[in-house]
Amino acid sequence: MISRFRDDSALLLVDVQVGVDVLEYWGGRTGRRNNPDAEDNLAALVAHWRAAALPIAWTLHDSRESGSPLKLSLPTGALKPGFTTMAHDIVVTKDVNSAFIGTDLEVRLRRVGVRRLVVAGFFTNMCVETSVRMAGNLGYDTYLAPQACATTNRVSVDGTDRDPSEIHAASVANLDGEFCTALSMTDISGLLASDAPGLHRRQGNE
User: Fold this and answer.
1) Which range of residues forms the domain containing residue 187?
2) What's the CATH code of the domain at 92?
3) Please, are residues 40 and 144 in contact by the beta-carbon 8 Å criterion?
4) Is residue 203 part of a domain?
5) What are 41-52's pLDDT values in tens digits?
6) 135-174 pLDDT, tens digit each
7) DSSP for residue 20
8) Nearest Cα residue to 64 out of 102, 28, 13
């Protein structure tokens, strides 16, 4: 049973930055993304967490690549419109695809007693997936909010243009039950409000 999200439950928002929507950079000339509702769902999660006075952590990606839209020195490195950090939030800057590598995120989470993470953001199969895998391996009770994530198409080695919905679904399927538990927005809202005895998952199948 998954018990109610309490003071030890942080929301981790990954790379909610303007640059993720430079789709030609991420998906090539046919660049496109899935889940147009991701931003609305992310905003809802932030609002729920703030109302519950629970900790929120953010990653900001500052790419090592000169041509990347995710550089903090560029306008596209900024948070998406409608998203703002607050003084008591945990904010880390990263330059790789994990929230935990080269940052003090783990130390700062441990200091405030966080044992559970609910992860959302961009891109599902890149920085979100890597961060979720590491969170699970670091021992956090880890949850994924797929409806508050999105990604772009990817072109395979053989030239096949993989639809973003396919990439997103495969990434969530790889993570759920092994590195995390994937929850719907409804389930997350319920766990913020009260215990949800109907939710059973297993992690660490191997």
Assistant:
1) 9-193
2) 3.40.50.850
3) no
4) no
5) 999 999 999 999
6) 999 999 999 999 999 999 999 999 999 999 999 999 999 9
7) G
8) 102
